[in-house]
């Protein structure tokens, strides 16, 4: 299929979703080929605006796997999409301060400045700001502080609506992570313009290994699963036009991801090597710790849908989305059921 109006595009966020594995193993291409389909990454979109399309899900035939904030924003305000599956993984996030700072507990942030990324891009939801603000508020409340008892400092950064996932191959993962354009608050922290920031696990470990920063609080250790919602549960989302006109794509994608999840369960180190190349975590050993015990099988489990509802309502109540919708209506479980049924039928035929 050429790059025509019928072209299928996809994108995968640099997070722990099994589409990375199904793509790297060739399972995705195999399952799509079996139904006469072929997908191109958004980095190949002829407009050169893959980053914007990734965020707003604006291609007619598109699949996106990754963080839930852009997916929720796209469904609320930009595009008709359907939710095919979710992945729950305990990420939570961390509050980071300078290593030499005399700060030992979250309570020590009383009266201090917490830097928050602020994108000047009006075309895309400010997903990192949303993640940061919600998690900062939760961390403060767990320590007995209110937001009014600290100073939230916006740290702006310019829009970045270019190709999807462009990167400087001359830089190491550590260098790229320390210079991400959407995290200018890290520079503000190092320069002393703020006293603390929020980040996620893989990046926090890289920050700490420089010797210049330390983790003050780790939300992933909280017993409250709602407090650990950041950009998770991750969401596998497809254009509504795609599943209505070419439903075989949705089933094929889910088949590939189910097979990949089974492979991850049997090949942890090999899977960690794949995830290491796709995420921010510094080493394969770091990744092994993250994925231990995680079930990457696509799911529409009640707790995952509840988590998405909680996150969606927070985005609505804090002005990150304009229009509301029901997560239960967004989810389309029939495609997951068809994928499982077809895989079981294939296995039975193999036995026979």
TrEMBL record:
SUPFAM superfamilies: Periplasmic binding protein-like II. It comes from the Bacteria. It comes from Pseudomonas putida (Arthrobacter siderocapsulatus). This is ABC transporter substrate-binding protein.
């Amino acid at each position: 299929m050429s790059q025509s109006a019928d072209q299928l595009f996809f994108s995968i966020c640099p997070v722990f979703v099994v589409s990375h594995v199904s793509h790297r193993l060739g399972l995705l291409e195999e399952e799509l080929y079996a139904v006469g389909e072929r997908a191109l990454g958004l980095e190949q979109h002829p407009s050169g605006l893959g980053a914007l399309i990734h965020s707003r899900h604006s291609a007619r035939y598109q699949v996106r796997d990754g963080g839930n904030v852009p997916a929720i924003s796209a469904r609320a305000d930009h595009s008709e999409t359907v939710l095919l599956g979710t992945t729950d993984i305990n990420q939570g996030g961390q509050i980071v301060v300078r290593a030499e700072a005399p700060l030992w507990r979250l309570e020590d942030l009383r009266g201090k400045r917490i830097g928050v990324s602020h994108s000047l891009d009006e075309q895309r939801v400010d997903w990192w700001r949303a993640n940061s603000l919600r998690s900062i508020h939760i961390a403060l409340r767990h320590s007995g502080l209110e937001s009014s008892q600290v100073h939230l400092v916006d740290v702006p950064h310019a829009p970045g609506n270019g190709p999807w996932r462009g990167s400087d191959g001359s830089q190491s993962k550590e260098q790229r992570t320390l210079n991400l354009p959407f995290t200018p608050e890290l520079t503000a922290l190092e320069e002393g313009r703020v006293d603390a920031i929020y980040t996620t696990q893989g990046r926090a470990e890289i920050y700490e290994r420089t010797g210049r920063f330390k983790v003050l609080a780790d939300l992933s250790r909280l017993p409250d699963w709602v407090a650990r919602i950041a950009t998770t549960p991750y969401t596998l989302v497809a254009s509504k036009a795609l599943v209505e006109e070419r439903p075989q794509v949705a089933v094929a994608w889910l088949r590939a991801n189910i097979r990949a999840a089974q492979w991850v369960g049997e090949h942890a180190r090999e899977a960690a090597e794949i995830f290491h190349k796709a995420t921010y975590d510094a080493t394969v050993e770091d990744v092994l710790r993250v994925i231990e015990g995680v079930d990457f099988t696509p799911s529409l489990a009640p707790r995952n849908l509840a988590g998405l509802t909680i996150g969606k309502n927070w985005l609505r109540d804090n002005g990150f989305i304009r229009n509301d919708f029901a997560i239960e209506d967004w989810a389309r479980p029939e495609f997951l059921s068809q994928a499982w049924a077809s895989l079981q039928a294939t296995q039975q035929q193999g036995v026979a």
